[in-house]
Amino acid sequence: MGYVGSTESARSYTEDPPLRILTHCFSNGKFVISSISSRALNSGCLGGATVLLTVHRMITSRRLAVLRTAVSAFVLDSNPGRGAFDESRRAFASSFQNPIVYYCVYLLLITFYCAAWLRGGLVDGIPRSFIEMREDLNADNLLGWMNKKTPRLYLYSQKDDLISVDAVEEHAQQAEACGFGVRLEKFSDSRHVSHARVYPERYWGSIKNLWQRAVA
After folding, report:
1. What is the predicted pLDDT for the residue at 37?
2. Mean pLDDT throughout 128-148?
3. Residue ranges of the domains in the chain?
4. N or C: which end of the chain has fewer CB within 10 A?
């Protein structure tokens, strides 16, 4: 997860005009969760959440209320997924090329899902942490500078082996139902988080259009 601020963001927080922040989030993270809620913090999951949680704590501790007036936009590249077992298996398969390491991790993954099932932590085969992650991404205060006026862009592909088209589009529909302005950019043959490399002009052009909409 990263963000890009305008030249104004390098100035004192007390100056006008307001900050301008573009947040760009890639994938779900190594295991899952891009969420700053306390329940995600207590879930023990690692990945994209670590960055967002750190940013959230920094904002809270410094009480940077001025961020609430910032102009912002949110880009979701190749996320969010649903967290089904097969999706998680494919994610680990792409991370570990050594077959011995892969099968060891695969056994751990099976253990995790079985333990979650025994604890009642699965809903239709999906860990609650994944479900909560998807819900939290549609929270008004996901980050201190975000609100219902923050437009968002989903960048995804039919050839993504890790995150399905249905998972992304379903979340986009839910975001729209929550009142967020949503745009979708679906690529035909780029792999997971590879859209910018395969279609650079289209990729960055869609982000530029989103940003122009945010600052208009």
Report:
1. 39
2. 86
3. 2-80+128-215
4. C
